[in-house]
Amino acid sequence: MSELVETYWVYFLVGQYPHGPLGGLALTVLLATLGLVLALPLGIALGVARFSPRAWLRRPVTAWVWVIRGTPLLMVVFWAYFFLPVVTGHKTGQFNTMLIALVVFDAAYLAEIVHAGLQALPRGQLNAALSLGMSRPQALRLVLLPQATRHMLPSLVNQFVATIKETSLGTIIGLSELSYIANQINAQVLVKPVEVYLTLAGSYFLMCYGLTLLGRTAERRLARAA
């Protein structure tokens, strides 16, 4: 395995960069990070909309979330890859296609996490905030969401970990992320599939485990602050 790592470690980390497109581990981290950064505010907005008493807002958002959650991510990737060029009239790049699919898919799951966190709070919290003269948006922003975050954090970390693993589906549209690069290396070496895919599995494990540790640290700090 040491010989394999010594020969292909640069390709595994950054793909063909700087002589070609960025790929490998660096592209996976970039894709996952952008997916999380963009999906989180969208998921919060959708989750708050699911919590709204206004049926005209709550029902279409609920339907949208249920449709996306009931659809495999693979299908969402295909929709983005084949449907977006038809709508926009321009071919969407592989990176942008996968990013859009991740944001749409993860936002639906994050919306349910936010919705569940808000519902878990006692009803009196909202009523008390409203009785103090706060508007409903102010009550959500200043009272409900900060408290709900403590309940949501384990589920949020779990979804973030899932996002890192979901990036591997980029290989089906030819995106040179970590799994795609591992397949390319395996096709060149041929005789060391165990070593190649053990390295791939270890890379995903380290990323996911690191994010889990960060989540636990955040949980402990929130618990002390409470």
In short:
With 226 residues, this protein is mainly α. The chain contains nine helices and no strands.
How many strands, which pairing sense, and closed or not: the largest β-sheet?
none
The percent range for strand residues is: under 5%
The count of strands amounts to 0
**Shape summary:** globular
Q: What does it look like?
A:
The protein is mainly alpha-helical and 226 residues long. The chain is 81% helix and 0% strand. The protein has helices spanning 2-14, 24-50, 55-69, 73-88, 94-119, 123-131, 136-166, 178-189, 193-225. The model has no long low-confidence stretch (mean pLDDT 87).
Chart the SSEs and their pairings.
Blueprint: H1 2-14, H2 24-50, H3 55-69, H4 73-88, H5 94-119, H6 123-131, H7 136-166, H8 178-189, H9 193-225
Helix pairs in contact: 1-2, 1-8, 2-5, 2-7, 2-8, 3-5, 4-5, 5-7, 6-7, 7-9, 8-9
